[in-house]
Design brief:
The protein is an alpha+beta fold. The chain has two domains: about 80 residues, no CATH class; about 110 residues, no CATH class. It has seven helices and five strands. It comes from Agromyces cerinus subsp. cerinus. This is DUF4191 domain-containing protein. Keywords: Membrane, Transmembrane, Transmembrane helix.
Length: about 220
């Protein structure tokens, strides 16, 4: 309960409409349950109580679902625009059979623009982080690499940002889930393993995961 309260406080701080949506989600089933109780119980107190309890439980469930969705969106809003934000979503926010890596497959060391990769039932998704004007060429280069290795696997490009044609960070998981299924689950695993086996090490953009950066060893004299 303490953790839920902390999540609610954080969500309400960044999303003022969340508490009202939760209240509406809770009250609607309660009112429906009360209405059904009065309509179907024929004055039986026990039946009325059962309907009211069912309405309360349904209301709590809906309120918690709304809280989870809004909390996720609020969390994404705090990191949106920062280097490594897409990687954070790929690490913890993917569902529907999609797998992604928090490390980018291509990085511009000067601008910190990056391209990430996810594999799912829809094929291979290349996701850019940075202005479209700077990342379009990076996306095209990566698509050519994937197509050369896996010519029969669909490859899509997704830009995350504020530019026209881009999507907001919190919409990325939903955009992946909406893709048309083209691969089976075993094929997803095979494609992911194939691409990971060919992945070369890349410099880590600032802000992505500094805690995982390995210290350089001193040279032996």
């Amino acid at each position: 309960m303490k953790q839920m309260w902390q999540v609610f406080q954080m969500t309400r701080r960044y999303d003022s409409t969340a508490q009202w949506l939760m209240l509406l989600g809770f009250l609607a089933p309660v009112l429906v349950g009360l209405g059904l109780a009065l309509w179907l119980s024929e004055g039986n107190g026990f039946t009325i109580a059962l309907w009211v309890v069912a309405g309360v439980l349904a209301g709590l469930l809906i309120a918690l679902v709304i809280l989870g969705r809004r909390a996720e969106r609020a969390a994404y809003s705090q990191i949106e625009g920062q280097p490594g934000a897409v990687g954070a979503v790929l690490r913890s926010g993917l569902r529907g059979g999609w797998v992604g890596n928090e490390m980018p497959v291509a990085v511009n060391g000067k601008t910190q623009d990056a391209v990430y990769r996810a594999v799912g039932r829809g094929g291979v998704a290349l996701i850019s982080e940075g202005p479209v004007s700077r990342t379009k060429r990076m996306l095209d280069d990566e698509q050519r690499k994937v197509t050369r290795i896996l010519p029969n696997v669909p490859v899509m490009q997704i830009s995350v940002g504020d530019d026209e044609g881009s999507i907001a960070l919190h919409k990325l998981p939903a955009a992946l889930r909406k893709t048309k299924k083209a691969l089976t689950k075993p094929e997803v695993l095979a494609v992911s393993n194939r691409l990971n086996s060919l992945q070369t090490s890349l410099p880590i953009p600032k802000g992505i995961d500094p805690m995982k950066a390995r210290p350089q060893r001193g040279k032996m004299r």
